[in-house]
Design brief:
The chain is built from 12 helices and 10 strands. It is α/β, with parallel strands linked by helices. The longest helix is centred in the last third of the chain and has 30 residues.
């Protein structure tokens, strides 16, 4: 029985890291032709046919970036009478709201409809989403981070895609302008690739908070303790029978650079959210959701469970190794991998070959994942906003 359990854990580990990406790659190649047809659509739509759009920008202590964000939105190629901007300052202790008001008076922003709402008490991002989105009047709602600049044609392309009544969510590409390291850049490039290919199963599995668009009519308030709102909100819409799509022509560029410590904290928080969403959206694992259920289980589902599977596999190999050469070899391989990651982690220089840095980044991610799972299981209340290192604040 122990051998069967250990082998099963090993198969799931290999499948998640190699098998599922291979399946995505094969399906992605088959979908290339249809993607090319979508990309060739004309971006010019008569203004009378365009939907109205509300852009929702939650902010906490964003004095460094808010002016850049508003000027970026002012440059979007979309009729100014067809979109409005709501900036929600969530109990900021700096002058975010003041800078936003000053920027709204700039020449390039004066034609915009900008509503700056200032809350004296910090409530958290989910509270802002639940309280403000229902009050918006547009056909579509854009949720976007202050630190993310978006491509000029983002709204036009999103409006195009929503011509299909079956589409409920449109997600753009996430790119780092100032990555904290090459491994972080590889990670987010990989995640973008996964989202693009997961769409072939019926929907992308979650969105990225930097920029995504939903149909206003499909919004329902989130539970107050929701961690990964940019996953649960889109997937709830998918559960209603709508599609969530990845649009590679829409780009969001992250301005903020992350240190290794901030990246670890972010991944720990995301891991807590992964376990939460697996539990709360478990009905989407039902076979009736077909490809979406398969992608959810193979991707986010197994990722949430992966720290436990790795521990189970290592423990099983350690117990079975003395009497079995096969499990002994598997144990040696794991010891070498984890030792390599530990050497890189304990080194002051991190001047190692790319292969070792990659191993370190992956293992460190699962350490963060394990801690994040414990945080959620122990009901440790997550920060209302992620911790940012540059000002020791939450964002």
């Amino acid at each position: 029985m122990l051998q069967l359990i250990t082998i099963a854990a090993g198969i799931l580990i290999i499948y998640h890291h190699l098998g599922y990406p291979l399946i995505l790659e094969i399906r992605g190649k088959r979908a290339t032709n249809s993607k090319q047809k979508i990309n060739s659509l004309d971006d010019n739509i008569h203004s009378k046919c365009l939907p109205s759009i509300d852009i929702f920008v939650p902010a906490y202590n964003e004095a460094k970036y808010i002016a850049k964000k508003l000027r970026n939105l002012a440059g979007l190629k979309y009729p100014k009478t067809k979109f409005s901007i709501t900036v929600a300052c969530d109990g900021c202790t700096d002058n975010t709201a003041e800078i936003a008001r000053q920027t709204s008076k700039d020449a390039e922003c004066q034609a915009l409809q900008i509503d700056i709402q200032e809350f004296k008490k910090n409530k958290g991002k989910v509270s802002l989403i639940n309280n403000i989105i229902p009050t918006l009047s547009g056909d579509l709602v854009v949720l976007t981070d202050v630190t993310a600049l978006v491509s000029a044609n983002a709204l036009l392309i999103a409006a195009q895609r929503f011509n299909d009544p079956q589409i409920g969510v449109v997600c753009g590409t996430y790119q780092l302008l100032n990555p904290g390291g090459s491994e972080e850049l590889k990670y987010w490039n990989y995640q973008s690739s996964v989202k693009s290919k997961e769409e072939t199963f019926g929907a992308i599995i979650g969105a990225h908070g930097a920029f995504y668009v939903i149909r206003k009519e499909l919004f329902h308030p989130l539970e107050p303790d929701t961690i990964n709102d940019d996953f649960i909100l889109p997937m709830r819409i998918v559960s209603l029978g709508y599609r969530a799509i990845y649009e590679p022509r829409i780009n969001s560029f992250e301005l903020e650079s992350a240190s290794l410590e901030l990246d670890f904290s972010r991944r720990r928080r995301i891991a807590a959210g992964n376990l939460q969403q697996l539990i709360r959206l478990r009905q989407m694992l039902h076979p009736s959701f077909k490809g979406v259920a398969f992608a959810f289980a193979s991707g986010k589902g197994l990722r949430a469970l992966m720290p436990f599977l790795l521990i189970l596999f290592a423990s099983g190999c350690a117990i079975l190794a003395p009497g079995n050469i096969f499990f002994c070899l598997l144990l040696i391989i794991q010891v070498l991998v984890y030792s390599a990651a530990a050497i890189v982690q304990l080194s002051a220089t991190h001047d190692f070959p790319n292969s070792l840095n990659t191993i370190h980044y992956i293992v460190l991610g699962y350490v963060a994942g394990l801690l994040g799972c414990f945080d959620y299981l122990h009901r440790k209340k997550p920060n209302k906003w992620r911790l940012r290192s540059d000002k020791n604040k939450h964002v």
